[in-house]
């Protein structure tokens, strides 16, 4: 970090030197912001430059052991996949897992709204907001937040509320089947309203699903959505919950490159390193390294990526399905974590480049096209309920059991799985079936260092 300028010395510098210094600083600022934007694959962000902050992002929420009770004798953690307004299947699923609000922690992975029925979205939102259910934002939830912020803003513009009400009433009585075609026709017919149409960000659809939920929801429900973070971090369990995904490293560099957070052991603050025992130091170092994955892998610092990421293609992140699923990259790096002990790093296959790190687990949704996607160190829960498939929950708790060994003892078995996976170019969720045990409705999965979870699902048709 640059130190505070010494003004008494700066006053003595020749004007030319000061001008050069300002020019260099200006170039650095331009480079920094242009570099940050280069990690972002959303083209519509450019239209936000002339608007207020509609996004209202909350980046990370950290949960304590009490808020994510893996070791409690009577409490469970239940994580539910993408709901998309499928309120009846949600109730069926909660009944099936015998959800008890007084003792169980319920978490959703985002996209609780839209794509399904409007009434289902409103009922789901009412349930989540009333009970203040823990969760993260999905890309569809984010659009609802942005539309509500836009509505609050546009209503402050003189003449705008009347235009909006009049235009919506016209759409409600129109027999057009295509909303987008009708909107384009309206803009062509009423050029005197151009100033209002120009106040809608590019790529947004007025009167669409997201708009209608945003318009109808209460202030309490809006506050609930705004409070949802992009990511949940549980240091005690070494778990991330996100909607779409995270990268373990910057794909433009080797995973062993010094700039990668998992390629070097973080430094403890001096106050911690003196007093902490080995176990406490390891826990503290893991927490620091996990935080670095969120803050130092540049692609993870772009909210749009965390909400929309699916694949890596040509060393860039993409929201499409073409390329390598990000979960493959996550598993690749996690299986190379060998702890912080130098001896552990030295005793391995000579062809395997290990990393001075401990693995972390990501639970996510978003990728319905890939279905239930269980890998070691990542669990994708979007099983396509909105497409009349299934709604899935991951249940963690005292009855689900624990592994007898920690991840270091399991590494030899997992290495064989990873060797097979290294031969695949694009990945296939079915190839990771060995990470799931049991029948479809009672699947047992490995979770974290030393736990098991159970996958429970219900039909959405």
UniProtKB/TrEMBL annotation:
<feature type="compositionally biased region" description="Polar residues">
    <location>
        <begin position="270"/>
        <end position="281"/>
    </location>
</feature>
<dbReference type="Pfam" id="PF00149">
    <property type="entry name" value="Metallophos"/>
</dbReference>
<protein>
    <recommendedName>
        <fullName>Calcineurin-like phosphoesterase domain-containing protein</fullName>
    </recommendedName>
</protein>
<dbReference type="GO" id="GO:0006798">
    <property type="term" value="P:polyphosphate catabolic process"/>
</dbReference>
<keyword id="KW-1133">Transmembrane helix</keyword>
<feature type="transmembrane region" description="Helical">
    <location>
        <begin position="20"/>
        <end position="41"/>
    </location>
</feature>
<dbReference type="GO" id="GO:0000298">
    <property type="term" value="F:endopolyphosphatase activity"/>
</dbReference>
<keyword id="KW-0472">Membrane</keyword>
<keyword id="KW-0812">Transmembrane</keyword>
<dbReference type="GO" id="GO:0005737">
    <property type="term" value="C:cytoplasm"/>
</dbReference>
<dbReference type="GO" id="GO:0016791">
    <property type="term" value="F:phosphatase activity"/>
</dbReference>
<dbReference type="InterPro" id="IPR029052">
    <property type="entry name" value="Metallo-depent_PP-like"/>
</dbReference>
<feature type="compositionally biased region" description="Acidic residues">
    <location>
        <begin position="413"/>
        <end position="422"/>
    </location>
</feature>
<feature type="region of interest" description="Disordered">
    <location>
        <begin position="402"/>
        <end position="445"/>
    </location>
</feature>
<feature type="region of interest" description="Disordered">
    <location>
        <begin position="255"/>
        <end position="281"/>
    </location>
</feature>
<dbReference type="InterPro" id="IPR004843">
    <property type="entry name" value="Calcineurin-like_PHP"/>
</dbReference>
<dbReference type="InterPro" id="IPR050126">
    <property type="entry name" value="Ap4A_hydrolase"/>
</dbReference>
<feature type="domain" description="Calcineurin-like phosphoesterase">
    <location>
        <begin position="76"/>
        <end position="210"/>
    </location>
</feature>
């Amino acid at each position: 970090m640059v130190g505070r300028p010494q003004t008494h010395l700066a006053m003595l510098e020749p004007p030319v030197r000061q001008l050069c210094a300002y020019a260099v600083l200006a170039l650095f600022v331009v480079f920094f912001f242009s570099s940050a934007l280069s990690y972002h694959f959303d083209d519509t962000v450019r239209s936000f430059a002339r608007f207020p902050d509609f996004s209202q992002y909350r980046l990370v929420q950290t949960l304590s052991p009490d808020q994510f009770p893996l070791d409690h004798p009577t409490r469970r953690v239940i994580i539910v996949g993408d709901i998309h307004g499928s309120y009846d299947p949600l109730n069926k699923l909660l009944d099936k897992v015998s959800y008890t609000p007084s003792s169980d922690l319920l978490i959703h992975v985002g996209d609780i709204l839209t794509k399904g029925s409007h009434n289902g979205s409103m009922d789901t939102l009412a349930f989540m907001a009333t009970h203040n259910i823990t969760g993260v934002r999905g890309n569809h939830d984010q659009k609802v937040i942005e539309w509500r912020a836009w509505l609050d803003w546009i209503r402050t513009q003189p003449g705008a509320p009347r235009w909006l009400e009049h235009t919506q009433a016209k759409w409600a009585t129109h027999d057009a089947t295509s909303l987008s075609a009708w909107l384009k026709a309206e803009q062509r017919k009423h050029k005197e309203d151009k100033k209002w149409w120009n106040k809608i960000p590019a790529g947004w659809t007025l009167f669409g699903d997201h708009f209608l939920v945003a318009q109808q929801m209460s202030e309490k429900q809006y506050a609930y959505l705004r409070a949802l973070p992009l990511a949940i971090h549980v240091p005690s369990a070494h778990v991330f919950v996100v909607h779409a995904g995270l990268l373990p490293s910057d794909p433009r560099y080797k995973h062993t490159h010094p700039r990668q957070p998992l390629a070097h052991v973080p430094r403890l603050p001096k106050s911690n390193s003196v007093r902490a025992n080995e176990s406490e130091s390891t826990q503290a170092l893991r927490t620091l390294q996990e935080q670095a994955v969120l803050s130092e892998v540049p692609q993870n610092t772009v909210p749009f990526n965390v909400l929309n990421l699916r694949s890596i293609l040509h060393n860039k992140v993409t929201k499409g399905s073409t390329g390598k699923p990000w979960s493959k990259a996550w598993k690749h790096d996690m299986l190379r974590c060998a702890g912080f002990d130098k001896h552990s790093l030295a005793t391995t296959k000579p062809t395997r480049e290990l990393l001075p790190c401990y693995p972390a687990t990501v639970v996510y949704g978003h990728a319905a096209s890939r279905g239930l996607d269980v890998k070691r160190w990542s669990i994708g829960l979007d099983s396509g309920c909105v497409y009349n498939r299934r709604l899935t929950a991951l249940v963690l708790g005292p009855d689900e059991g624990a592994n007898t060994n920690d991840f270091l003892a399991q590494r030899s078995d997992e290495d064989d799985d990873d060797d097979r996976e290294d031969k695949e170019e694009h990945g296939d969720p079915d190839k990771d079936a060995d990470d799931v045990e049991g029948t479809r409705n009672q699947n047992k999965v490995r979770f974290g260092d030393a736990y098991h979870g159970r996958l429970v699902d219900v039909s959405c048709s």
